[in-house]
Amino acid sequence: MHTQTTMTVTLIAQADMQDPMEGFVMRKTPPTARLTLASATQEHTFTADRETHGFTVTAPLAEGEHQITFQHTRPDPGQGALLIRELRIQGSRTGLAVYRGVYTRHDSQERLPGHLYMGWPGTWTYSIRVPVHDGGIGFE
Questions:
Q1: Into how many domains does the chain fold?
Q2: What gap in Å lies between CA 1 and CA 47, rounded to an integer?
Q3: N or C: which end of the chain has fewer CB within 10 A?
């Protein structure tokens, strides 16, 4: 018999609309992002530089491996960047395990393990195992 576990994931991200060296803040549009776990999603459009938003999704998951994805929802390279500040699974911070995700740029499909700064539109992916033991985060 397969059992399901209700999992809650919270990801805190910050919009970055400028680069002090390049000064391109005026040409960037606010990013829109989406957090997904199974069929649960939450989307948010940032409105200002350095705005921080907490995304939370809850989904029933069967035993085994599942993907958490956080992504820009628009392919526009002129939008601001996203910085992942924190990841919580079942209310617990993942600590250094936050670096086990993989960021894939949409334009080049370049994969950057452990990269928390999403400077170009892309998707950030984590693997988690259910049931959760010792943080439950697996590397994709």
A1: 1
A2: 47
A3: N
The one-letter code for the residue type at 121 is: P
How many Å apart are CA 9 and CA 88, to the nearest integer? 6
- Amino acid (one-letter) located at 51: E
CATH number of the domain within which 14 lies: 2.60.60.40
Half-sphere exposure for 51 (CA within 13 Å, toward CB): 15
Beta strand segments in the chain, E: 4-16, 32-37, 40-45, 52-62, 64-72, 81-89, 92-93, 102-105, 111-113, 117-118, 122-130, 137-138
Q: Record the pTM.
A: 0.87
Q: Which domain holds residue 76?
A: 4-138
How far is residue 10's CA from residue 120's CA, in Å, rounded to a whole number?
A: 22
**Does residue 78 surpass a pLDDT of 90?**
no
Q: In terms of pLDDT, which residue wins out, 20 or 82?
A: 82
Note the pLDDT tens digit of each residue in 103-119.
999 999 999 999 999 98
In sequence order, the 6+-apart residues with CB closer than 8 A to the CB of 138 are: 65, 100, 127, 128, 129
Paired tokens of 25: 């803040």
